[in-house]
Structures are given as C-alpha cells and as structure tokens.
Amino acid sequence: MRHIAGTLLAIALAASSAVAQPPAAPPAPAPDPTAQMATDPLNTSATYAFIMDGDGGIPLYSKRGDEPMIPASMSKLMLYYMTFERIKAGRLTMTDEFSVSEHAWRTGGAGTDGSTMFLPLNSKVSVQDLLKGAIIVSGNDACIVLAEGLFGSEEAYARAATARAKELGMTGSTFANATGLDAPTHRMSAHDIATIAFRIIKDFPEYYPMFREPEFTFNNTRQYNRNPLLRELDGADGVKTGHLSVSGYGLVGSAIREGKRRIIVLNGLTSETERKKEGPRVMRSAFLDFTASTLVNKGAEVAIADVWLGEDKKVSLIATESYATGLHMDAVPKIKGSVTYKKPLLAPVKEGDIVGELVISAPGTPDKKIPVAAGKSVNQLGLLGKAMLGLRGEDEEEELEGKKE
Questions:
Q1: Can you say whether residue 291 is alpha, beta or left, with left for phi > 0 and alpha for psi between -120 and 50 degrees?
Q2: C-alpha to C-alpha distances, 17 to 21, 303, 305, 343, 372, nearest whole angstrom
Q3: CA pair distance 98, 94, nearest whole angstrom
Q4: How is 185-232 classified by DSSP, letter by letter?
Q5: Contact 342, 19 (CB under 8 A)
Q6: Which of 171, 209, 237, 343 matches a 20 to 30 Å C-alpha distance to 404?
C-alpha cells in the first residue's frame, strides 16, 4: 500500500478551528452523466467497472460498481468459494465423486447452447474434475453437479450462497442458481464480484492456480480457458469471464506486477473482441494510474489546539483511526485536510477525549470524517495560576493603553 509523503503535514498545516458548524448545504443536484463520462479517469466502454487493490482489498475505481447487475458466469465464483471452503474444512475431498443428474445434463450439458463440460448423463465425476471443468471451461453442467452434490439441489445452493455472501459483506448479491443463467433474483454488483475473487485468492492460495490453467481435457474433449488476460497480459493469473445476451460480455481478472496485485471487473461490453481489447487495457491502467494510499495513520498528530486555563497552553490533536483509500494518480496532489474544534479548548482536558474532527477530501471519493482526540491530559490552572493569568491580562491591557496615548 502506498503512503503519500507529506500528506499528514499538509493536513496539519490546513488545520482550522470553528466555534459553530455552518448551516447544512442544500442537497447536491444529481450528477450529469455526460459530465461524469468527460471526467472519468478510466473512460471504459464497459457499462459496469470496478478496480480493487488485490493486496488490501481497497477499492480503487468504481463505475456503477455497487449496482446489482446480471453477472452471468462470473457469479460461479461464489460456488467455487463455497466448494473450497468445504475441502479446506475436511468436509469434502478432491477424489469424492458426484453423479450427473438429468437436471444437470439437460440444463447445462451437450444439448444446450451454453458452456458445458459435456458430462454424460448418470456418470460419476470427481470433485477435482468438476472444479476444473467449472473453472477452466465454465461448464454449466459441472456447476450444477457440484451444487447438487454439496447442497442437494440448485435451489438449496442458491439460498446458502445468498446467505454466505451477506456474511462476507457482499450486500449486492442474491443467487437463484449455480450457473449464472439469467433469473430475476440472480444479481451481483461488480464490487461483490471483485470481493469474492479477492477472497478466493487470499483464502485459498492452494487452489487458486487452477484459474490460470490454459486448457482442460475431459472425455477426450479439449477446451480452452476463455480469459483473454491469460494470453494478452504478462502477470495475469485469473479469474473468470461471463456472457449472456442480456448482460453483454464480462470479465473479472487478476494480475501481479512488481509484487502488487490488481483485480478488475468489467461487464456490459458489446463483443468478445471488445472484451479482449478492454480487459488488458483496464488492467494496465489499474497498475499505472491508480494507487492505494494511506492518508492518515491512527495516532498521528494532525493539529495543535490552544488550551484556555490549562497548565499547558497547547495540546496535540490525534487521529483516532487510520484511513486508506484508492485514488487516481492525478488526484493525489489534490488531497486536502482540515481539522475543526471549538477554539480554545477549556481545561481540564483528558487524554483521549474527542474534541474535534478531521475531514479529508480527495477528488472522486466522498469526504472522510475522523474524530480527533487530545493527545495528552492538560490539568486546569490552580487559583494562583489563574490569578497570575489575570494579572498578565491586566498588564497587557495597560501596555495597549499606553501605546494608544
């Protein structure tokens, strides 16, 4: 994660005080889509797009990224994740076998026009082969067999997947099947797709290499991985494509360069050719043009406040939490910060007391508000100290009067 040199100093220098907050501003007008496109730093033709820092899971860019959309086969990542969970927990092995039901054969098999592993009806297939058929060639039949084998039915899988997604923080996801075939209640956001890809990579590194395998042969039928990044971009190692006539062409991809990982999600592209071109372009931009930046660390001094009637005249104000965000590189010099507090603070002040607020502004992201606390305790002056303070005040007034004369 990149740390922006000098940012904390800039925030401290921008510190200000306020006795009262200004009146609330009127609601902002709805953004103009034309203006948004003109200022979009990525300028992708995809209807939906999302970029995530693959090391920390920090969002770097979003275009309608939190809107539920038709995810097509990219939603199969949820099935893979739940299968990996069971293998890692010892509840399932790669050598276990599941039977190919008539539903799996008819809905996802050779007689359909979707992606298929060409599983024979009533055959028994190992979990390892089913996973490879589902991951590498996106076999709908393989996905249904896995869902039925693990949960009893596609419907039961869909309920379990929806609940598990919520537990993982994927609030824009609901599942109706294991394949990604269109259904009114089958939706995921681009953010959620990036999240489940991130979780697969982080939680199951021992299984993730399957996603970069270029081909898979089953029953003497060789099929190839459709992910264009694997062929077009150095460092790419996953993860999944998707396509339906109602959703367009989609891609969730991941790559590593110079020890850093990025995850991208695109959906709504108009053709396979456009996906092949736009996927690598967006991934290159994800590395070159976007950064995950720590703007303030918990415990950092962000301002120095005046203290009235205190044994110390000033006290450091400390950020109570860290804040990292994703930014386009052009936005980094435009970061601003300000601290507001009721000036002066009135002694006694206790260390850790929340006395104000740090507001960090960066182009393309909502303002972040962080409570700031007193960095140490400041005791109130005793009677003698207050008296001496009063005398100093009188002396200053006499000096001013003398100057006037």
A1: beta
A2: 10, 10, 9, 6, 13
A3: 11
A4: T-BB-HHHHHHHHHHHHHH-TTTGGGGG--EEEETTEEEE---THHHH
A5: yes
A6: 343
Taken in order 345, 347, 352, 353, is the CA torsion positive or negative?
negative
Q: How far apart are CA 238 and CA 300, in angstroms?
A: 38
State phi, psi for 91 to the nearest 5 degrees.
Answer: -90, -5
Angle at 184 (CA atoms; ends 183, 190), nearest 5 degrees: 85
Tokens of 297: 């660390």
Amino acid, single-letter form, for residue 314: K
Beta bridge partners of 252: 240, 265
Q: Is residue 4 within 8 Å of 333, Cβ to Cβ?
A: no
Placement of tokens 């982080």 in the chain: 202
The set of catalytic residues is 73, 76, 138
In the chain the domains, ranked by start, together with CATH numbers, are 2-19+294-383 (2.60.410.10), 42-288 (3.40.710.10)
What would the pLDDT profile of 43-101 be if each residue is shown by its tens digit?
999 999 999 999 999 999 999 999 999 999 999 999 999 999 999 999 999 999 999 99
**Residue 401 CB: number of other CB atoms within 10 A?**
9
Pairing assessment for the beta strands 260-269 and 248-257 based on DSSP bridges: antiparallel
**CB-based contacts of 239, cutoff 8 Å, min separation 6:** 77, 197, 200, 201, 211, 227, 252, 253, 254, 263
Specify the pTM.
0.83
